[in-house]
Specification:
- The protein is built from 12 helices and 18 strands.
- The chain has a 5-stranded mixed β-sheet with strand order 3-2-1-4-8. A 5-stranded mixed β-sheet has the order 11-10-9-12-13, sandwiched between helices. Strands 14, 15, 16, 17 and 18 form a 5-stranded antiparallel β-sheet that branches.
- A hairpin with a 5-residue loop joins strand 6 and strand 7.
- It is globular.
- The C terminus is likely disordered.
């Protein structure tokens, strides 16, 4: 089949359909057109499939090679450190450890991974993606109903990372907030490499961020702060980002950056460096589509992260379709084609059986090593948790004592329950002293001690003690994680 000269990057959900059409080129992204359509559709009643079908006809998608993108908030992704640099061993380790990160058996998942960095000590930093098969199959079912056979199904995280690395942003450490139609994704880049990622589903219209009273501003700021706090906890240096960039395939990024800067206090700017990726043609007037640009680079073999979630069912259907077309074209040589097909089938069966045996032998050979590595990895994680004093009872007690007034107050009970709550009880000469302590703890929570951010007052009671009135007070600090969860994971990194 002749190679098509144009590529269409198609994204769709129940609210928005976008298509970036590019011409194959040896450098950059040669943009031909960028199309956006909004509406209210549904997977369940077939209206989304009908909308995509109408969109495909109107924009003549059948003439192009099609690649689609699944959003990060519909799956689980983890950045792992693995004790190997072998592609086969990395794939095996990711497959074996899948059930540690998602509550599904491995056979219900579509899994892929890519190496982010190789270290001199023989270890690798890897991003692994775990998508439930139902999510991928629902995406493919819409395409199948529209007669679309995608060459690749990419993940937005890999597309964004590829676009950012190609753009060569100068900051050493920065965050990118991508406003997707059905959610928000936050990436942190360190020295040009992906260091952290988190995606959260959110049914917001990000174009409303220009309104000062919009709920979208508050929700977006909360997710960004939670993501950057999680990044600082997980990073080795504990440093924050220098700047936040905002991108979107459809929203006004300048308005979003201004709103986010006012709500979070971070320096924010639209990701205008996206224009450097479009070496031919011009950047689309709507938004700053870094996801589409990164997918276009990957479709031409120039993406830094190659992650594709094409399911086995689609591969089999594609193989069947190609065989059917070959048989129809060779009607005049039917007998020869049948014999050739049988020979190819026999050879393929033999090769598959041989390869299956070879894979089994490899699995048997590395199984013990993989189990040992997995056990040591778990031991190292437990050791790291034991050595990490951040947020410990002693550290929080020291912080409370530092914040207490120098007189007129006594702590009678300090109860710490890991991942549950911290309860402080005491006596004070006045109710105002207890209130001042709670306010001081909240102020510290906004700066240096994130555990104090959700301080709330408990019971207050006035009593007589040695012929004077004192206040019995209680302060409660919730310690349970507050992060919004997504399907398939307890929290989105």
């Amino acid at each position: 089949m002749a190679r098509k000269t144009h590529i269409s990057i198609l994204q769709f959900d129940e609210r928005t359909i976008t298509r970036l059409r590019v011409k194959r080129s040896p450098k950059g992204v040669d943009c031909v057109s960028y199309d956006v359509e909004s509406g209210a559709w549904s997977y369940s009643d077939g209206t989304l499939a009908e909308a995509v079908r109408t969109f495909a006809r109107a924009h003549q998608l059948a003439e192009d090679s099609i690649c689609t993108v699944l959003p990060r908030h519909e799956m689980t992704a983890r950045i792992l450190s693995l004790p190997t640099q072998s592609a086969v061993e990395i794939e095996s380790m990711v497959q074996l450890s899948a059930e540690e990160y998602v509550p599904y058996p491995a056979h219900e998942l579509v899994i892929d991974q890519a190496v982010l960095q190789k270290s001199g000590d023989g270890t690798s930093k890897v991003i692994a993606v775990f998508a439930h098969r139902d999510v991928v199959e629902a995406h493919v079912d819409v395409l199948r109903k529209c007669g679309i056979d995608p060459e690749h199904i990419y993940v937005s995280t890999a597309c964004l990372a590829s676009a950012l690395q190609a753009a060569r942003v100068e900051e050493q450490r920065y965050a990118l907030v991508n406003l997707a139609s059905g959610g928000v994704e936050v990436l942190v880049m360190e020295n040009g490499r992906l260091s952290y990622g988190r995606g959260v589903a959110a049914q917001h219209n990000w174009n409303n961020l220009s309104r000062a009273d919009s709920q979208e501003i508050e929700d977006l700021a909360m997710e960004v702060r939670a993501s950057l706090s999680a990044y600082r906890r997980e990073s080795e240096e504990g440093e924050g980002v220098d700047r936040i960039y905002v991108s979107s395939d459809y929203a006004d990024c300048a308005a979003a950056a201004n709103a986010l800067a006012e709500a979070t206090g971070y320096e924010c700017a639209p990701a205008k460096f996206a224009a450097s990726l479009f070496e031919h043609g011009s950047i689309p007037a709507k938004g700053l589509p870094l996801v589409s640009a990164g997918a276009a680079l990957s479709a031409q073999g120039r993406g830094s992260l190659a992650i594709s979630l094409v399911p086995a069912s689609l591969v089999q259907a594609r193989q069947t379709g190609e065989l059917r077309r070959s048989l129809l074209k060779g009607g005049g040589l039917a007998a020869a084609v049948v014999l050739s097909a049988l020979a190819v089938f026999g050879q393929a069966y033999y090769q598959r059986a041989s390869y299956s045996g070879e894979l089994q032998n490899r699995i048997d050979a590395i199984k013990e090593t993989a189990e040992t590595a997995r056990s040591r990895h778990a031991q190292l994680l437990r050791l790291q948790q034991n050595l990490d004093r951040r947020g410990s009872a002693l550290e929080l007690l020291a912080a409370v004592i530092e914040l207490m007034p120098r007189g007129g107050m006594t702590i009678t009970r300090f109860a710490y329950a890991h991942n549950d709550a911290l309860t402080i009880q005491g006596r004070a000469e006045s109710q105002g002293l207890a209130t001042d302590l709670a306010d001081a703890m909240r102020a510290a929570g906004a700066k240096d001690i994130p555990q104090f951010a959700r301080v709330r007052g408990g019971a207050f009671k006035q009593e007589m003690e040695q012929d004077r009135q004192v206040w019995q007070f209680e302060i409660i600090v919730p310690l349970a994680p507050e992060e919004v969860t997504e399907e398939g994971e307890a929290s989105n990194e």
